[in-house]
Hints:
Blueprint: E1 2-5, E2 12-18, E3 22-27, E4 37-41, E5 45-52, E6 61-68, E7 73-77, H1 81-95, H2 105-108, H3 126-133
Antiparallel strand pairs: 1-2, 1-7, 2-3, 3-4, 5-6, 6-7
Amino acid sequence: MELHDCLKLQPFKTVVILTNYKIVILAMTQPEHIRSYLTITFGQVSRIEECISNSKQTDEITQAELHTKDFRYLKLTFDSHEECNEFIKIVREHSFSHGKLDHKFATLYRIPRDLKPLGWKVYEDPIKEFERQGATM
């Protein structure tokens, strides 16, 4: 994948790493010991747009424009149409969920049924609580 910056400099090869909460763009043009990277959290993304590449032989979308709330602008060119669509889909899901937290880690945790009726009373007897956690005294 190539990254074009807003200053119209030459594009350079990058690797994009997507985590649950951020985008990491790693520049591959520098030697490994001085490689630089750019981190953008999904909360910083203001919009992402698809754009058709300038090549006249195809109309497939292989570029994505990423705009951030701090006015950074990145243009990413992907090797294939599928990679570009997958990147855009993931960034849209994580950046613009608008209150839908079903895919976030903290919302996947559920309290075990045997603890629900007890509530805070589970901590009244410290010995039983340590036994429940598997800690022995």
